[in-house]
Amino acid sequence: MPTATLLRVPDADALPQSFEIHPFDGPLGAEITGLDLGRPLAQHDFARIVRAHLDHHVLVFRRQRITPQQHVDFSRRFGPLMIHVLHQFHLPGFPEILTVSNVIREGNPIGLGDAGKYWHSDISYKAVPSLGSLLHAQELPSEGGDTLFANMHLAWDTLPSHLRRAVEGRQAVHSYLAKYGQMQKAANWRPTLSPDQLALVKDVVHPVVRTHPETGRKALFVSEGFTTQIIGLPKDESRAVLDELFAHSVRAEHVYRHAWQAHDLVFWDNRSLIHLATGCPAHLARTLYRTTIEGDVPF
Ligand code: OGA
Ligand code: MN
Questions:
Q1: Which of 79, 179, 244, 281 gives a 20 to 30 Å CA spacing to 233?
Q2: pTM value?
Q3: How far apart are CA 226 and CA 119, in angstroms?
Q4: What atom of ligand 1 comes closest to residue 290's alpha carbon?
Q5: Hey, which bits of 65-224 come out as E strands?
Q6: Residue 82 Cβ contacting ligand 1 at under 6 Å
């Protein structure tokens, strides 16, 4: 059978779709209805999506019955895709897709069951972190499983002045291993990393306050999941400042709570947000597929 890719109409010939963008009443996010990402996307429609993503930081595309290949193809329009270090949980045949799942099949987890248990920005532990991620619901639990997103522009804009003074111009260490050992002990999801995997996740350093490369807005760029230390501060002071930054970032007025609906595709900006999986009862299956777009070096 010919693949969808071969049959695809070149995007230059794509017909426009009359979709709607509904911003949420809150600190971030918008819902997109009436768009089928399984169809070729006209340049003008793509430009509307890019603009909405920069304006709202989270886009919720409802009712996307797309294949993994279509998920990858759409994601790639925003930039190169990153390959997650936990190759154990790549969707078979799609190294660009990380399976996020609590399902155990024949004694083996099919995906990362505790993904996003701490607030984080995806792949901030790399020297070139992520622009954004696209998470596509496959199977959802009947209760729980929401994802929270916090607006880090608002976190910076409203940061008390003593914290601003403490962090302005400073850098912080980001480490994939910050919570890894702890999470490994807490549940049985996380494989012991091989020497090759460890070599891919060496600690990196990023500015505590970054400038969004496309909008020029400043954002806090630290998270409890991956940020371990502010460089140039004594250890105890660094710990205290980080804890205050973490608490301030996720104040209720900065947060959008996403309650997943069947076939949602959620596209968020890792440069302006952090996010958290709230979890669901262990006996209820929850599976989503994630692609992650490479961004640029934070400044
Ligand atoms: C992720 C993640 C949160 C969730 O896939 O990057 O953090 O609610 N997931 O599954
Ligand atoms: Mn994540």
A1: 179
A2: 0.95
A3: 8
A4: 5
A5: 90-91, 94-101, 104-105, 108-109, 130-139, 147-151, 171-174, 204-207, 209-211, 218-220
A6: no
163 closest CA partner among 252, 270, 218, 237: 237
Give φ, ψ of 48 to 5 degrees: -65, -40
At the second CATH level, the architecture of 20-294 is: 4-Layer Sandwich (3.60)
Task: Please give the distance, rounded to the nearest whole angstrom, from the Cα atom of residue 121 to the centre of ligand 2.
Answer: 6
pLDDT tens digits, one per residue of 128-162: 999 999 999 999 999 999 999 999 999 999 999 99
Ligand 2 center to 100 CA (angstroms): 9
Cα separation of 166 and 126, whole Å? 24
Q: Give the start-to-end residue ranges of the domains of the chain.
A: 20-294
Q: Answer for the pair 22, 59: CB distance below 8 angstroms, yes or no.
A: no
The answer for residues whose C-beta is within 8 angstroms of residue 55's C-beta and 6 or more apart is 23, 30
56 lines ligand 1 (CB under 6 A): no
228 vs 9, residue with greater confidence: 228
* Confidence tier at 187 by pLDDT (50, 70, 90): confident
**Proximal ligand: closest to the CA of 125:** 2
Greatest Cα pair distance, the chain, in angstroms, is 63
Nearest CA to ligand 1 atom 9: 116
